[in-house]
Amino acid sequence: MAASLEVGGWRAELEELLARFGRLFVRPEPRQQAGRYLEGLLGPVERKNGWQLAEAIGDARPWRTQRVLSHVLWDEGAARDLCREHVVERLGAEDGVLVIDETAFVKKGRHSAGVARQYCGMLGKVENCQVGVFLAYGSRKGHALIDRRLYLPEAWAGDPERRSAAKVPGDVPFLTKPAIAREMIARALDAGVPCGWVLGDEVYGADRRLRLMLEERGKPYLLTIRGNDRLEAELDGSVGRHEPSVLARALPPRAWRRLSAGAGTKGERLYDWARVPLVRPSEPSRERWLLVRRSIIDPADLAYFVVFAPARSRLLDLARAAGRRWLVEECFEAAKQEVGLADYEVRSWRGWHRHVTLSMLALALLALALLAGLRAGLNGPKGAREPLAGPSSRSASPRSAA
Q1: DSSP assigned state of 384
Q2: What is the DSSP letter of 27?
Q3: Are 162 and 112 in contact (CB under 8 A)?
Q4: Which of 227, 234, 298, 361 has the fewest Cβ atoms within 10 Å of its own Cβ atom?
């Protein structure tokens, strides 16, 4: 693995990140071990669990690596911020997007922090799993994950015995997934992350407080909503709260345009699109719309988005923005397949956040390798695969804000 990292001078990029990451450690031995863990996540090991990672980095046993995730003193929150900074420094662009979503991790037993019977998008059904909420950043240069938080179900949050066993800090409250999203997005925007849009599915689109927060910041958003959510719009000469499905049925045929949501693995992703003006915001340079996407193959298959954007935005701009939400799915797929996002063997709250943060750092390096055309040199035969360019994996949500 070490030799492969020399390709194209990529070792220098890795060493720079390791040097910045190493400042989070007081002692040299755990600093070196954490760096080796990160290199192991970038290596060709098929399953990046404790024993296989230990073997890959030359350890006879996984104990030293496991201590990095449990007992060693370092700040995983600062490491998260480092990941965000590194991604934005390399991939940042004013037309970038922030995408909020969640993904599930199937688990056995009941002792891992936050594990419960809840919806698992990977399997498309309720399963015993953990769910993590993630924030992705993407631009024309590439995309990566920049924030994360384990979802702690309300039953867990109110169970002192289980919290203590999984070492969930006492100051960690129960938060809905939209509340977690608000914290993550606010943290990114406060840090100056450049972006033209905030995107998310219906779990987040249904949260009026998230939409209000973004409008107060003047930040454009395009969020999926359900057909039975209600939006303020004029219909039949009067303003009221109407379901998107009702507003869509009132659209005349001339309102629809066939547009691409962007290129996919099989060419342009074409749909029919239309928009309905909603009650205007107080900011005169902004507008709100209901955006409707209609399948060409099945015209009864409609998707709805609530939009806050510059008044000059074209329908094409909205369609292209909607198509960019899938980059978070590509991040999940690449992180699970390439850098061991789901291969952890830890049960504690801290252990989960530490492993996931290290996987995010590794994913950021892969994104930069793709940008430089060096992916094959970083990760051997497995790393030679490109991430899929379409909606190849499903989110963990049952379409509720649980």
Answers
A1: T
A2: S
A3: no
A4: 298
